[in-house]
Amino acid sequence: MQTRKTFWPYGILISIFAIVCACAYTIYYSLDYPVYMDDYYFDKYQKVDSKFNDIQAAQSNFNREFSFDLTPQIELNGEILPNEVEKLRKRKTATIVPLNQDFTLKFDTNATKYSAKILLTRPDSSEFDKELAPQISDGKLIINDLNLTKAGRWQIKAKLAVDENKTGFYQVELYAK
Q: Taking the model in full, what pTM does it have?
């Protein structure tokens, strides 16, 4: 007759429970980063995946020569508004912009001759995507007559290209209220 108790059946159950918890957390965490919807690089994710090293080299070349300030100046009716910041989850912040009013965003850059592609979007939805026409003058990238009609998070995604080997990609979080 054996009266000695073993721990291994409990160890197996605890291990299975830990694996299920890890899987659930991985799914929860990945919901904030849907790869198939990512348009940060203005291209399909398959193409980005195959040329990622080239994209990173072009970004590095752009950053070495030029700067782009991710903190926008907000101008409403000719008056520059103070930058207010809204805290989002996961240590992210967003610049507060006015809701249902035409305003202008200005970004400082020292790049002079470049092409810019700007996209206004909402996170995790392409329903409200709108390509914007920026102006470039006096070391500023200017987006005029921007009007956000829905409250909440918005993103400005920018692609600044001097040439094929010098391209910068930037994302700015906005919070309309």
A: 0.75
Q: How many CB atoms lie within 10 A of CB 136?
A: 16
In the predicted model, is pLDDT for residue 30 greater than 90? no
Task: Answer whether residue 61 shows pLDDT above 80.
Answer: yes
Bridge partner list, 85? 95
* Token pair recorded at residue 73: 């100046």
- Give, as one character, the DSSP assignment of residue 31: T
Could you report how far apart the first and last alpha carbons of the chain are, in Å? 74
DSSP-derived secondary structure for 134-148: -EEETTEEEEEEE-B
HSE toward the beta carbon, residue 124, CA cutoff 13 A: 7
Task: Note the helical H segments in the chain.
Answer: 8-30, 45-50, 52-65
Number of residues assigned to the chain: 177
| Consecutive H or E run containing 112 | none
Token pair belonging to 75: 């101008």
Q: Which residues pair with 156 in a beta bridge?
A: 120, 172
Name residue, tokens 């291990």.
15
**Alpha carbon distances (Å) from 77 to 64, 101, 176, 177:** 36, 9, 17, 17
